[in-house]
Amino acid sequence: GIQVEQSPPDLILQEGANSTLRCNFSDSVNNLQWFHQNPWGQLINLFYIPSGTKQNGRLSATTVATERYSLLYISSSQTTDSGVYFCAVDSLTGGGNKLTFGTGTQLKVEL
Amino acid sequence: DTAVSQTPKYLVTQMGNDKSIKCEQNLGHDTMYWYKQDSKKFLKIMFSYNNKELIINETVPNRFSPKSPDKAHLNLHINSLELGDSAVYFCASSRGGRLEKLFFGSGTQLSVL
Q1: Residue A99 is nearest to which of B50, B55, B99, comparing CB atoms?
Q2: Strand, coil or helix: B83
Q3: Burial of B44 by CB count in 10 Å (0-12 exposed, 13-18 middle, 19+ buried)?
Q4: Do A98 and B48 count as a contact with CB atoms less than 8 A apart?
Q5: Minimal Cα distance from B30: which residue of A?
Q6: Which H helix or E strand runs over B55?
Q7: Percentage of residues of chain B with pLDDT beyond 90
């Protein structure tokens, strides 16, 4: 099956700093999504982005499908950004109804 | 209004017991899922239902039986619980027959003692 690798595995930021999280995948995809799992365990969908660039407030994401990677940018980080960020993909051969998740990036934003 | 709601939030039980987790979505979505998150936070799909029909069953032990009475509900029944079943179980839903944006419930923390 498709492999999804995220980097870095852990990240500590000072409030106000910017960061880039990376997601590499091993096969062509027709679906890519970014999620934030907050410290209380809730999984929030940030972006549905199989290709191109999207922005939502301080967050933006870019997927370069031909090169098999996606980036999540967090600008002016806040303590509420802490948690785990997951990238998830569905490969072109995956049947169209199954997201494979990466192992996540654990982010801590400190004052 | 919670879009995807699941109950209970916490479930503590003894080995060998049978338990159920309920899930409901009010988004009008056609497809619902169960995901399992282990202690290392790895998320893996278990089942997917589209309009009450099972479309994905990811080599899950047959002690786990999903049931979808209608497209807004997907319940998970687990027989003969084992220690290794301890995890967080997430229900999710998406619009349409082909996976689009996925929305998760708040999770059920299952602890088997």
Answers
A1: B99
A2: helix
A3: middle
A4: yes
A5: A97
A6: strand B53-57
A7: 82
